[in-house]
Amino acid sequence: MTDAGFLDGCRAIAGAAHVLTDAHDTAPYLTDWRGRFTGRARAVVVPGSTEEVAALVRLCAAHRVPVVPQGGRTGLVLGSVPDASGDAVVLSLRRLNRVRAVDTFNRTMTVDAGCILADVQAAAEAHGMLFPLSLAAEGSCTIGGNLATNAGGTGVLRYGNTRELCLGLEVVTAAGEVWDGLRGLRKDNTGYDLRDLYIGAEGTLGIITGAVLKLFPQPKAAITALVGLCSPGDALTLLKLLEAECGPTLTGFELMSDVCLRLVASHFPSLPRPFPGHYPQYALVELSSHESEQHGVALLEGAIEQALETGVVQDAAVATSIAQSRALWAIREHIPLAQAAAGKNIKHDISLPISRIADFIEATDALLQADFPGVQVVCFGHLGDGNLHYNIAPPEGIAHEDFLAEQLPVNRIVHDSVAAFGGSISAEHGVGALKRDELPRYKSAVELNLMRALKAALDPLGIMNPGKIL
Q1: Which of 119, 168, 253, 414 is geometrically suited to a Cys-Cys bond with 384, CB 3.0 to 4.6 A?
Q2: Entry pTM
Q3: What pLDDT, in 10s, does the model give residues 157-178?
Q4: 202, 79 in Cβ contact below 8 A?
Q5: Is 91 helix (H, G, I), strand (E, B) or coil?
């Protein structure tokens, strides 16, 4: 079949209006979120149902055409854009956007993979429930992409990654078959857990088209505080204290350096400055109370008072209204925006054993300063679950573009240090094409061979998102 004949086949399945080939129409689907890479594709196809996805995959398999699944296009590791060959079809799931069912007794919601995360949150809230996955891109990212990358976000400390928030999947396999695993069961020991194979696989084993998600009761109140600290070690001590005093009400614990807050203040001066002075580190803490706001406030203030008395915390600002709470979270959420406004930097999404984070920061800061004197480390992240965004900006007087030429040696310093401290070079963003070539340095041959065996078994033609992860 000619290329024209193949595209006619796509049109017969999805409809001519949903097969995009004009450069103007396909351009938004071919460039990654950060604008660093633009690929090429035969077409962008936007199916309207699981059955259409399956038929398109069967067509692609018959003609050995690679398939690049795509959700909200908010990924950060080049996982959802095609390569430069122009061979692939981009398969966008944005039309698969239905909430199929909500079961408040089973505390589950069944959704299409193309549902935007914020819409899923809103649908849960409309039924008096909570879907706790929350991240900066929630107004654009989709559930399918969240599952394909096992996204994290700010609620992992209490609720877990996306993997922990999913009970069942619907998947189109590399052969174009539909696996209906949409079971809302919390216990199901009937063989291999196929769900966990596809979650975090970044579309390299099959295409997630639907999911059964866990829902939770809405908390009666969320209480937020920002505290000033002397060191990351003090942040760990505070985290341990809060876990002991507040138990499962502790839902968020974010670490931010003074460098981060100064960046935000410089580029977003309208945001609040909770303290008159500066501290080397800050922690943004959130409790969710299912009893009452008074209960949550008493818990948090009691724990912070202990920390102030022992010198672990230097200062604290507890939000007394929803507006104040949002303002404190806005400081945290504007760190990436402030970095972007300041210029390009070298980003790292890493995870570490929580107990080793302070030592990692001290050791890695020193290693970077030794090789690149004057670099600015912009370190922040979800300390409660061990995930840091450890980003490196150039020294004063060095052009940002020139500093990006040092990305490989900077990455080597950071990632080797991560490995030395028992961590992972990708905490919540995935591997994609960006980190693919680094995996052999940090994963054993046994582990990689097992991954390749799974890929070969489930995608023998190698058409599912080729060049990603492996």
Answers
A1: 253
A2: 0.93
A3: 999 999 999 999 999 999 999 9
A4: yes
A5: strand
